Every structure is written in C-alpha cells, then in structure tokens.
Amino acid sequence: MRHRSRPSSASTSTPLTPTTISHICPCSGLTAERFVNGYGSTVDSAETLVSISTATNGDLAAAVKFTSHQNPAASPDQKESCTDWSISLFLTQGGSGYLLDNPPPGYHATYQACP
Length: 115
Hints:
This protein has helices at 21-24, 32-39; strands at 2-4, 43-54, 60-69, 82-94, 97-100, 109-113. By secondary structure, it is mainly β. It has one domain. Strands 1, 2, 3, 4, 5 and 6 form a six-stranded antiparallel beta sheet that branches. It is globular.
C-alpha cells in the first residue's frame, strides 16, 4: 500500500462542499479552490467504521475504510478512477460533541487501486 495525506472527512450524511471544508476542519489547510481542484470529481462510497481506539495524545482515533471514484487525474497516482482508502479520523472533545483534530506527526492514510 502507498501512503498519502487526505482531508480526513468522509460522510454520507453531511456532504463536504468547498464552502464548508474550512469550517469543518480548519486543520486541513485547504482553501475552497484547492478542495474543488483536488476532490471536485470525487464520489465516495462504502464508508465503513472499522474501529475506534484511543490515540497516544488522548484523542479518539476512528479507523474508516471507503472507496473513492474520481477523475483519474485527481487520483493519488493520477491513473486510477477507483481507489480504496483506509484513514483515521482523530477526534477531540469539544463542547457536547467531538471535533476533528490534527493527525499525529507522521500519520498518513493508506490507499491502493481498486481490484
């Protein structure tokens, strides 16, 4: 498997849009334009929560798998129209719920071309 950082948000109930990405996770560092250019053609499916554990810094780490379908030029290797991802979402308590937190140093999502 290869590694790549990806905005750590995948949801079927609340779709991300260029205008909401910076409000949901300011830690992503993505502008609306970069979000659209990088993920505008992507449609995610088969989102599955694999596990929830405690990260070394005390955050909750939610391991998620999903498949992305995108313009091949927008894929990690710029060749594939389908990519299987394994990511972790790092959550910190905020108010009465949880907020996305920055991943720990060295964290990278893993991915591979769909079979």
